[in-house]
Design goal:
413 residues, alpha/beta, Rossmann fold, seven-stranded mixed beta sheet, globular, binds glutamic acid
Length: 413
């Protein structure tokens, strides 16, 4: 595949470089590159048309030395073990970077959720939980939404898990509010991108007011990021979904586009907007580019054409390691995924804590604590990058890898 290093190999490039800088041994590197547990299950369901279909499901637990494994569950036709493995490793680094007491995991089912009915999705989800319930739970591995899943899917997981173990809301996060979900979880990742960009602008003296933004992806992350950045006075000039991309120099109307998307299912054909060929939203001239859809979208093929001054990784792994090198040479900053999109897992952590303590926190508390944790993490990354003259991904990996290694050392390994 042109310019697409796999999720796991990109992770290993960052891990290897961090281990070299920190002077860690080959065995430490090996321990951090391998997952502790990898599950693959085959899930048969009867489709609405009466036919039998079998889907492959995965759950990878990468590390739990700092706390139970934590990470999303993804429904997408390209899910495979390599991708889930790479994403699980990134979660270990993400939870370590923002210093919350959780480890890293990830799951996925190889399916196209758009082609499945609600009933089919529910049966698929419940059967997946029936297969893997022994390995997940509040103290071992806690799932959450990711690409192609949402609060409803988490509600089914909660219900299925609780049917086996008794009421256990802390076994999964990103649940509907009615089932013990947290205020602010829905918008957390997008909102967090706003917090990180604000910290970036304070540190590097780049003004927010009127700064232009292009966003790839109009799902949960993209829409909430667009709203948060508009609230900060920034101007979103391009947005896209899986099939179309639109552009307007004067700024797009996010609420009108969200309405159109929810009513008609796509962004295209809106009056007053210029249509772009899919993928071209990544190449518009702007101050900030936020890829908030899938991995590997900025690669060695299109990296030379990126015109943004700064890339903020809303998705996991949108910039390949080959593209990273090109962008570094071109002096385009990349704010890495493990920092930029960590708002989601931070509020998942708040949800888990609330559920364990049988508490309900108000939105203001969530917003304040999220801003504090994420703002601190961002400043630590910027400080370390400046001290060691590193790019931001390398600086973030140094901090995370060191924290995980310290925990491993403390266990006596
Ligand atoms: N799927 C999100 C991520 O990649 C959230 C994970 C979580 O909340 O556990 O960070």
């Amino acid at each position: 595949m042109t310019g697409k290093s796999s999720m796991q190999s990109s992770y290993e490039v960052s891990l290897d470089a961090a281990c070299d800088r920190l002077g860690y041994t080959e065995s430490t590197r090996r321990l951090l590159s391998l997952a502790a547990l990898e599950l693959k299950v085959e899930i048969p369901i009867v489709r609405d048309n009466g036919e039998l279909a079998v889907f492959s499901g995965y759950r990878v637990q990468h590390q739990n030395v700092r706390g139970p494994c934590k990470g999303g569950l993804r429904y997408h036709p390209e899910v495979d073990i390599d991708e889930v493995r790479g994403l699980a490793s990134l979660m270990t680094m993400k939870t370590a970077l923002v210093d919350i007491p959780l480890g890293g995991g990830k799951g996925g089912i190889c399916c196209n959720p758009r082609e499945l009915s609600t009933r089919e999705l529910e049966v698929l989800t419940r059967k997946f939980v029936k297969r893997i319930h022994r390995e997940i739970g509040p103290n071992s591995d806690i799932m959450a939404p990711d690409v192609g899943t949402n609060a409803q899917v988490m509600g089914w997981i909660h219900s299925e898990y609780s049917a086996i173990y008794g009421h256990s809301p802390a076994a999964v996060t990103g649940k509907p509010l009615a089932l013990g979900g947290s205020a602010g979880r829905d918008k957390a990742t997008g909102h967090g991108i706003g917090i990180v960009i604000q910290a970036y602008s304070e540190r590097y003296g780049t003004p927010l007011e009127g700064a232009t933004v292009a966003i790839q992806g109009f799902g949960n992350v993209g829409v909430h990021a667009a709203k948060a950045l508009t609230d900060l006075g920034m101007k979103v000039i391009a947005v896209s979904d899986a099939r179309s991309a639109v552009y307007r120099r004067e700024g797009v109307d996010i609420s009108a586009l969200s309405k159109q998307k929810s009513e008609r299912g796509l962004l295209a054909d809106v009056d007053g907007y210029q249509r772009l060929d899919p993928g071209k939203e990544l190449e518009v001239e702007c101050d900030y580019l936020v890829p908030a859809a899938l991995g590997g979208v900025i690669n060695d093929e299109n990296a030379p054409r990126i015109k943004a001054k700064t890339i903020v990784e809303g998705a996991n792994g949108p910039v390949t390691s080959e593209a990273d090198k090109i962008l570094r040479r071109r002096e385009i900053d990349v704010v890495p995924d493990i920092l930029a999109n960590s708002g989601g897992v931070i509020v998942s952590y708040f949800e888990w804590v609330q559920n364990l303590q049988r508490q309900v926190w108000p939105l203001k508390q969530i917003d304040d604590e999220l801003a504090q944790i994420l703002g601190n993490a961002a400043r630590q990354v910027f400080d370390h990058a400046a001290q060691k003259e590193l790019d931001l991904r390398s600086a973030a990996f140094d901090i995370s890898v060191r924290r995980v290694k310290e925990a491993l050392d403390a266990t006596g390994i």
